[in-house]
């Protein structure tokens, strides 16, 4: 009985982790180093996230300052940011790359909110699919005579509680992302 519950928690948590990863790609007007998490550079023949080859800090709320540890990577980092299709334009001054977050237009904000809602719905669907699989597994065990009907009800109730908890987390993260996008 506990194995079903213990099995669904990591799966549902993966849905939340995936949602957070997708939300990090949706930029707001504020500078956030996480927006560069998916950008990789060729670092001695290995695709490496910029954060593992440079120091990334926030200047004045809307500007990211990127200081590669190996100064020969400055051009590589600049190219990678431009190729990443994040709508960002890096500018280099000496050994520092600055990326200013463009101000979002109302139309762009609404597009990003729509994208965030789609990602949240995908997470909800994933969580519900995990619930369905867990309930089916419990029903199969009950049919096989491994658990009683009361145990089946208890498992379904516990699975529903976990589902509600994780759906609540999705809602909270979506609300936070929407507030970030609406804020000017």
Order of helices and strands: HEEEEHEEHH
How many E strands?
Answer: 6
Give the strand order of the largest sheet, numbering strands 1, 2, ... along the chain.
Answer: 3-4-6-5
Mean pLDDT: 87
Which fold name corresponds to the CATH topology of the largest domain? Topoisomerase I, Chain A, domain 4
What integer value in Å does the Rg equal? 22 Å
CATH H-level superfamily of the largest domain: Ribosome-recycling factor
How would the global form be characterised? elongated
Q: What is the overall number of helices?
A: 4
Structural class: alpha+beta
Question: End-to-end distance, in Å?
Answer: 49 Å
Unreliable residue stretches: none
Largest sheet: 4 strands, antiparallel
Hey, roughly how much beta strand do the residues contain? 15-25%
Describe this structure in words.
With about 180 residues, the chain is α+β, with helices and mostly antiparallel strands. The chain has two domains: about 1-25 and about 105-180, Ribosome-recycling factor (Topoisomerase I, Chain A, domain 4); about 30-100, Gyrase A, domain 2 (2-Layer Sandwich), CATH 3.30.1360. About 60% of the residues lie in helices and about 15% in strands. It is built from four helices and six strands, in the order H-E-E-E-E-H-E-E-H-H. It has helices spanning about 1-25, 75-85, 105-145, 150-180, and strands spanning about 40-45, 45-50, 55-60, 65-70, 90-95, 95-100. The strands form two sheets. Strands 3-4-6-5 form a four-stranded antiparallel β-sheet, with helices on one face. Strands 1-2 form a two-stranded antiparallel ribbon. Strand 1 and strand 2 form a beta hairpin. Helix 1 packs antiparallel against helix 3 (about 105-145), helix 1 runs parallel beside helix 4 (about 150-180) and helix 3 (about 105-145) packs antiparallel against helix 4 (about 150-180). The longest helix is centred in the C-terminal third of the chain and has 38 residues, at about 105-145. The protein is elongated, with a radius of gyration of 22 Å. The mean pLDDT is about 85.
